[in-house]
Structures are given as C-alpha cells and as structure tokens.
Design a protein that fits this description.
- The protein has 104 residues and is α+β, with helices and mostly antiparallel strands.
- It has one domain (8-99).
- The protein contains 3 helices and 3 strands.
- The protein has a 3-stranded antiparallel beta sheet with strand order 2-1-3, with helices on both faces.
- Strand 1 (10-15) and strand 2 (21-26) form a beta hairpin.
- The radius of gyration is 13 Å and the shape is globular.
- The model has no long low-confidence stretch (mean pLDDT 96).
Length: 104
C-alpha cells in the first residue's frame, strides 16, 4: 500500500553500505523506513540533520518530484530501501534546499 502525498520537512544524511553518504530531504515516515533499513542491513546509517525545514519553493519542487516519481510505502517495515534517484535538475534543487537551511 502506498502512502498519500508526502510533505517533506526534514534533512537526513544516509550512509550506504559501501560507506558513501548523501543527504536526503525526507519526513518522519521516510526516516522511520531508513531506521528500519539500518536494522535490516539495507543501509549502514541514517541521521537527522535538521527538522521542520521551511516549506520553500525548492522544497515544494522536490516534494512534487518525489511524489510523482517514487512509490512511497505507507508502512515502516519495508522489504527494500529505495534511494530516490535524482535528475541533475533535482540535484541542484536539493543543493539549494541544503544552502537555504545552512546544511553543508
């Protein structure tokens, strides 16, 4: 079952099993799924960097991209962790969100 439209309001740092990291704009459902993925060995680590980020035009744009392009499970106990693959345009939007929120 898929979740309804997801509002994104936190910045997380995800550590893949190979040790590389990336920053993601998520929410508490996404964070719970990532925490579960850590417990199940799908990823190495997740850490919240900032909570309740302002709902800027950039956040709205990324939110629309995520909701339009990815199936977001409604439950925390996921069978696989899906890293949201971004377009170059969305990479730039996420960089702007990180800058707006002073997260480097």
């Amino acid at each position: 079952m898929s979740a309804d439209f997801q509002t994104l309001d936190i910045i997380e740092e995800i550590t893949r099993n190979d040790g590389s990291t990336y920053k993601e704009i998520g929410n508490l459902l996404h964070n719970g799924q990532a925490e579960y993925a850590v417990e199940e060995g799908m990823i190495k680590k997740v850490r919240i960097l900032k909570i309740n980020i302002p709902h800027s035009k950039n956040v709205e744009s990324y939110e629309k991209f995520v909701n339009d392009n990815f199936e977001i499970p409604a439950n925390i106990a996921i069978s696989k962790y899906t890293e949201w693959q971004r377009t170059p345009e969305m990479d730039a939007v996420v960089e702007k969100i990180l800058a707006e929120n002073k997260v480097s």
